[in-house]
Amino acid sequence: MSDAAEVRHRVAELLAGQPLAVLATHAQGQPYTSLVAFAATEDLRHLLFATTRATRKFANLTADERVALLVDNRSNQESDFHDAMAATVMGRAAEVPDGERQALLAIYLGRHPYLRDFVASPTCAFLKVTVEKYVVVNRFQQVMELHVTP
């Protein structure tokens, strides 16, 4: 397996194994983070999440579409310094267009079926992050990058 294929495989496994990510946005230069339930498309080009339109994260995304998400598999044990892996996902977030909504919603609800009523609410925004790259840290200091957007 090539290095790029190995990184892609590790990222796919990490994303499949974690239901939550830390979303980072910002407003007027102040970073802001929040937990989101996410799902990834099979090609790793998009991450999907939902939020109500009244949230600070949605206001921040409306002002600036640039985001980062952190997905990790830490266990909060000393072994994490050797075994944990984290991926910072960098990209741009936007509401899912109507023409893509059903297909992407199926992916999201396949991962989070208990959020069906939440995403069906008229106050909910369903968002797609178009991923530019993944920065993967393994063994606390080994850093690899995976670029997915042409």
Describe it.
With 150 residues, the protein is α+β, with helices and mostly antiparallel strands. The longest helix is centred in the first third of the chain and has 15 residues. The protein has five helices and seven strands, in the order αβββαβαβααββ. It is globular and about 45 Å long. It has a single domain, classed as Pnp Oxidase, Chain A.
The structural domain count equals 1
Order of helices and strands: HEEEHEHEHHEE
Strand content: 35-45%
- Structural class, from helix and strand content? alpha+beta
Alpha plus pi helix count: 5
Unreliable stretches covering 5 or more consecutive residues:
none
Strand order of the largest sheet: 1-2-3-6-5-4
CATH architecture: Roll
Let me know the average pLDDT: 91
Largest sheet at a glance? 6 strands, antiparallel, barrel
- The termini sit apart by 22 Å
Percentage of residues assigned to helices:
25-40%
CATH topology: Pnp Oxidase, Chain A
Name the overall outline: globular
The CATH superfamily appears as: Electron Transport, Fmn-binding Protein, Chain A
Topology, number of strands: 7
Question: What Rg do the Cα atoms give?
Answer: 15 Å
CATH class: Mainly Beta
